[in-house]
Amino acid sequence: MAGGRLHRVDSTGVLDHRAVQLVPDPGWRRSHPGRAAPAGRPHGRRHTDRGLDSCQVRGHAADEQQSTAGVTQARLTVEDLTVRYGALQAVRDISATFQPDSIVGLIGPNGAGKTTLLNALSGFTDITSGRVRLGERDITRLSGQARVALGIVRSFQTVRLLEDESVFLNVALGCERNPQPTVVEQIFSLPRQWRARRRDLAATYQILDTLGLSEFAGRAVAELPYATRRLVELARILVVHPEVVLLDEPAAGSDRAERDLMGRTLRQLHAREPFTMIVVEHDVDVVRKLCSYAIALDSGAMIASGEPDVVLENDRVQEAYFGVGHRA
């Protein structure tokens, strides 16, 4: 993020991590009495030396959120999508439209092509044939980094965080997807640098508060339980209010209580500020509770789509999951 360091965004929306020096915390002790300041936030210099206090920072976040409210999101469309790896067809002839603000579950047995489809949507794998569109724009040949710039972000089956760094820093790194000041503006601390710094701090505070992570802000990620680390990863993805969020098994490795918590958290976030969410998930109970629409894949092909309960009762889906003739 802006403020004493330079970054390079890669196609994951995750940053090339170099020597980190976060800007000081504006008013952390005032708004969080009795808590240690997050790592990377010196207690000396403060934003108030430029006339920025915590109320201004948080107010700026609210202004930005209001300014983007009501923006019509573009639908994500897949047309006859095929992905081949040599002789293997990992995904074949899939067509689907993901409506703005929808929550869609991708289900199917292992090897069905679910993660490959996410890779194709996010630019992590080459598309052999077919098209991917965001609104009217053809993004089929765009790089993953270019898709991140358009607001398409993703998570992975395994948590990918900077384990030795603080929760605050890990989440703040997601702000690099925002437009950032030039090198000259950063070196000379020009007004655009300060505006970007204030914007990114405000966004980080906001998502930490929303996900109940403020109390962990100063702790190293490696110290946290698995479910909390999953929430940190989610916070980093959502800190810049993306258009399309692709989640690859967000509840993987969690127990039932943690899965229920993740499902409730995702529903609450979506209700507060809707975005298009596409979720790969093996736990059909999570899909039932979270998703309004489901797509079932098997051997790279779509075999059913519709409301989750209807899809899960489909004969072909039952056969793919449980074998011939099985009825749950």
What does this entry look like structurally?
The chain is built from twelve helices and ten strands. The protein is of the alpha/beta class. It has two domains: 97 residues, no CATH class; 157 residues, P-loop containing nucleotide triphosphate hydrolases (Rossmann fold). A six-stranded mixed beta sheet has the order 6-7-8-3-9-10, sandwiched between helices. A four-stranded antiparallel beta sheet has the order 2-1-4-5, with helices on one face. A hairpin with a 2-residue loop joins β1 and β2. α2 crosses α7. The longest helix has 20 residues. The radius of gyration is 21 Å and the shape is globular.
List unreliable stretches of 5+ residues.
1-34, 39-72
The tally of structural domains comes to: 2
Q: How many distinct helices?
A: 12
Q: Output the structural class.
A: alpha/beta
Helix/strand layout:
Layout: H1 28-31, H2 54-68, E1 76-85, E2 88-98, E3 103-107, H3 114-122, E4 129-134, E5 137-138, H4 144-149, E6 152-154, H5 167-172, H6 183-187, H7 191-210, H8 226-238, E7 244-248, H9 256-272, E8 276-280, H10 284-290, E9 293-298, E10 301-306, H11 308-312, H12 315-322
Parallel strand pairs: 3-8, 3-9, 6-7, 7-8
Antiparallel strand pairs: 1-2, 1-4, 4-5, 9-10
Give a brief outline of the structure.
This protein is an alpha/beta fold and 328 residues long. Helices cover 35% and strands 18% of the residues. The protein folds into two domains: 1-13 and 53-71 and 167-224 and 234-240, no CATH class; 76-151 and 242-322, Rossmann fold (3-Layer(aba) Sandwich), CATH 3.40.50.300.
